[in-house]
Design brief:
The chain contains 15 helices and 22 strands. By secondary structure, the protein is of the alpha/beta class. Helix 9 (about 245-265) packs parallel to helix 10 (about 285-295) and helix 9 (about 245-265) packs across helix 14 (about 440-450).
């Protein structure tokens, strides 16, 4: 049994719910005090726990009432407020600082200890996420069957967590990696056991999007109503080294899924895209741009919409986990170019907005999430180094490595022929593509198919990387060329 002495920061509904659960279970430790800035609460007892304050005096308060852990239970706190709290709690020398997720992930007064986690740099970086009423936003999914492709990935797994609160009848978790699907399934079942969300039936499914026969069989049996398509190969340098795999999975996998969904009677498919699909210079970006066109321009057998956004903080393979590992080993932290900028958004906020757009969006439309201002990668590295208590350049060196194949110095959310239009919904734009240049999508796919799938009449171009890039360059003139590209 834990003997941890815990300060709960915030004596609102979330903090009181957490303190009550800690007391009832008796295994997480003991709440010795609330910390709050509200004069009406300071000096009172709530959940039989004294409320101390103000929070800025925590150093003196902890000296009188020692504690081991701090748990920030203010889900509506802004980024600025969290940075302030982090500084105060570090000065008070807490051994551990935990946090409850943002309001967008908490429905009503439904806050649980299992939702808390170690404070992470992503909680302090970037802008304050928009708050979305999940119960209202997910009303279109109540009683329905929802399938998530790529459910073990960063976006897919967060979709699954938030969908627990949507009242769906079933959640199908589709992926090709058994371990990642196992992990998110186990996590969702544990959340349900602890009272988070509703009683959706969780069904793990292992399979490949490139197996059209299997997809037809699967979707006919699952009878899903709505699909969120997040599955993709997405690491830019990795896909530059494996370009055929990028097109095979991201393009033809999307085509297979959409056609199988239409034949199975799926009512809606929501596709997750990226800012790298805008004027693509990488094969990955080209693959996502083609997938967007497949969703929006081909004969759509069901309602389809695309939601495009930029980088998400702390996703697998993203820059934040890499920086963290480099800092933990003492540096150096490597950046491609000190001038480079990227759009960033937290995973929970991006997913909340995707779920909202999936309900309010119009079929056949492309939507872009408001990513705020682009973030300088050098500034991000310096902020992260400071988060861990070091001084950039003195304790941890920062080294430039140069842009890698397929990478841009800056990213854009829309191309020169696209225009952002406001919608009634905060941070969700509609992308007007009325002046988009025509592309013979079917001819392009026909040219790419024998490169990705063996055709006995044209065996010489199977897996031929130069042929692949030649076909793609015809549709995407900005695509970077690789003079050292091997033929196979």
């Amino acid at each position: 049994m834990s003997r941890a002495r815990i300060y709960v920061i915030g004596a609102g509904f979330a903090g009181r719910a957490i303190a009550r659960e800690i007391r009832e279970k008796g295994v997480f430790g003991r709440v010795v005090a609330f910390l709050d800035d509200d004069p009406a609460k300071i000096g009172r007892r709530m959940e039989d726990v004294p409320v101390l304050g103000p929070i800025e005096e925590v150093v003196a308060l902890v000296e009188k009432n020692p504690a081991d852990e701090a748990l920030i239970a203010i889900p509506s706190a802004s980024r600025e407020k969290l940075r302030e709290l982090h500084g105060v709690l570090r000065r008070a020398r807490f051994n551990r600082i935990r946090i409850l997720p943002t309001v967008s992930q908490i429905v009503g007064d439904d806050a649980h200890f299992i939702q808390t986690r170690q404070l992470d740099p992503q909680d302090l970086l970037g802008r304050t996420p928009v708050n979305i009423n999940l119960r209202e936003a997910l009303s279109y999914l109540r009683g329905r069957r929802v399938l998530i492709t790529g459910a073990g990935g960063s976006i897919g797994s967060e979709l699954a967590r938030q969908l627990l609160s949507g009242g769906a009848e079933r959640l199908y978790l589709l992926g090709h990696g058994e371990n990642s699907i196992y992990e998110i399934e186990a996590e969702l079942r544990l959340l349900q056991e602890e009272g988070v969300g509703e009683s959706a039936q969780i069904v793990p499914v292992i399979g490949e999007l490139t197996d059209r026969t299997y997809l037809d069989f699967l979707l006919q049996r699952l009878r899903a109503d709505v699909i969120f398509h997040t599955a993709a190969y997405k690491h830019v340098p990795m896909m530059e080294a494996n370009p055929v795999a990028a097109i095979q999975n991201n393009v033809f996998g999307t085509r297979n899924l959409l056609e199988a969904a239409g034949q199975a009677g799926v009512s809606r498919v929501v596709f997750i895209s990226t800012d790298k699909a805008v004027s693509p210079v990488s094969v990955y970006g080209a693959s996502k741009s083609l997938a967007e066109r497949i969703m929006l321009e081909s004969n759509r057998p069901c309602d389809t919409m695309v939601v495009r956004f930029g980088n998400v903080l702390a996703s697998r393979g993203s820059i934040l986990p890499l920086f963290r590992r480099q800092i933990e080993k003492g540096g150096p932290v490597t950046i491609t170019d000190r001038r480079a900028t990227r759009y960033f958004m937290t995973i929970p906020e991006a997913v909340s907005l995707v779920l909202k757009a999936g309900g309010v969006g119009i079929s056949g439309e492309l939507y872009a999430l408001d990513m705020g201002e682009p973030v300088n990668i050098m500034d991000l590295a310096e902020q992260l180094i400071r988060f861990y208590g070091y001084t950039p350049g003195r304790d941890i060196a920062i080294r430039e490595t140069g842009l890698r194949q397929g990478e841009k110095l800056t990213e854009q959310l829309v191309s020169g022929y696209e225009t952002l239009r406001t919608t009634p919904f905060e941070r969700i734009f509609r992308v007007d593509r009325s002046s988009a240049p025509p592309v013979n999508l079917e001819q392009l796919l026909d040219d790419l198919r024998p490169v990705c799938f063996f055709d006995p009449t044209r065996p010489e171009i199977y897996r031929n990387r130069r042929r692949l890039r030649q076909v793609l360059t015809g549709a995407f003139p900005d695509l970077l060329q690789n003079p050292q590209e091997p033929e196979y």
